[in-house]
Specification:
binds guanosine-5'-diphosphate; 303 residues; signal recognition particle binding; 8 strands; alpha/beta; eight-stranded mixed β-sheet
């Protein structure tokens, strides 16, 4: 289970605190719930989610007549999965991959969050599944970003369409689409720039790129994936708000979950933004990208 190793930091911190709590209280009472609330908030589960969870737990403890803190442990994980799933009744959000014809994914997010790495990992995995993949270096603002995507292209053994730094992002995306069409590509993965310093520019650039894709391929982009860095905690939440104002985000890729003890941010994102987490990054290597599975995630936090 990739989640188990990837969530090691969150799990060890969370379990240690939970075990301490259970050992300290034995019997559950109001103070127990207050301390539990604190432990969950420290794991970045998000205030709204924590409030709901505590309320559910108090009711469940009454309903099942649970008195021992140890017995409540199992209920906590069950309720966390339930709360996650409740948001739209489909706990596991499917990725919009066309079974026939070209699928286009647009990746957005601030520099440094792991956008290029995620595109590289996904290219590798799709290729392993027998799909023909093409990458487009749409972050034309930074020469380094173009270069880095090219490196990932080599690693994953897929082609990369790129222009010189400073050129029009919409033009390189256009070229990428034409190349994808003529080469019979199955999945086109488009990188974009992530400068948040100038929100108006960012919005204009993203909407221009999106318009080109929409015009050239009806129904595309099939996913607009916002990449967020889990180690930035609540900052990731505010980035998500900014980007969802700039463009229609269809899903989130949460990277670097392996590097944080605050993996609960996944639940906060779902609850507070109502955007499904579709993939998670659990390391720096090619295979460290997983489709998000709430059950595996929550149990990865506990077991
Ligand atoms: P970009 O600027 O958004 O394209 O970010 P990069 O893809 O260049 O990634 C920035 C750094 O984060 C690199 O050092 C990556 O190796 C690292 N990184 C990306 N995803 C993950 C992840 O899931 N886990 C860990 N530990 N590091 C990651």
């Amino acid at each position: 289970n990739k989640y188990k190793s990837g969530l090691e930091k969150t799990r060890s911190s969370f379990s240690t605190k939970l075990n301490d709590l259970v050992a300290r209280y034995r019997k559950i009472d109001e103070e127990f719930f207050e301390d539990l609330e604190e432990v969950l908030i420290q794991a970045d589960v998000g205030v709204m989610t924590v409030m709901d969870l505590i309320e559910e737990l108090e009711m469940e403890a009454k309903r099942q007549n649970i008195k021992d803190a140890a017995d409540l442990r199992e209920v906590i994980s069950e309720k966390l999965v339930e709360i996650y799933a409740d948001e739209d009744n489909t706990a596991e959000a499917p990725v919009n991959m066309q079974s026939d014809g070209l699928t286009v994914f647009l990746f957005v997010g601030v520099n440094g969050v792991g956008k290029t790495t995620t595109i590289g990992k996904m290219a590798h995995q799709l290729k392993q599944q027998g799909k023909k993949v093409l990458l487009v270096a749409g972050d034309t603002f930074r020469a380094g970003a173009i270069e880095q995507l090219a490196v990932w292209g080599e690693r994953a053994e897929v082609d990369v369409i790129k222009h010189n730094a400073g050129s029009d992002p919409a033009a390189v995306i256009y070229d990428g689409i034409q190349a994808a069409k003529s080469r019979g590509v199955d999945v086109l993965l488009c990188d974009t720039a992530g400068r948040l310093q100038n929100k108006v520019n960012l919005m204009n650039e993203l909407s221009k790129v999106k318009r080109v894709i929409e015009r050239e391929i009806p129904g595309a982009p099939h996913e607009v994936l916002l990449v967020l860095d889990a180690t930035t905690g609540q900052n990731a939440l505010s980035q998500a708000k900014t980007f969802s104002q700039a463009t229609d985000v269809s899903g989130i890729v949460l990277t670097k979950l392996d590097g944080t003890a605050k993996g609960g941010i996944v639940l906060a994102i779902r609850k507070e933004l109502k955007i499904p987490v579709k993939y998670v990054g659990l390391g720096e290597q090619m295979n460290d990208l997983e489709k998000f599975d709430p059950h595996a995630f929550v149990y990865g936090l506990f077991s």
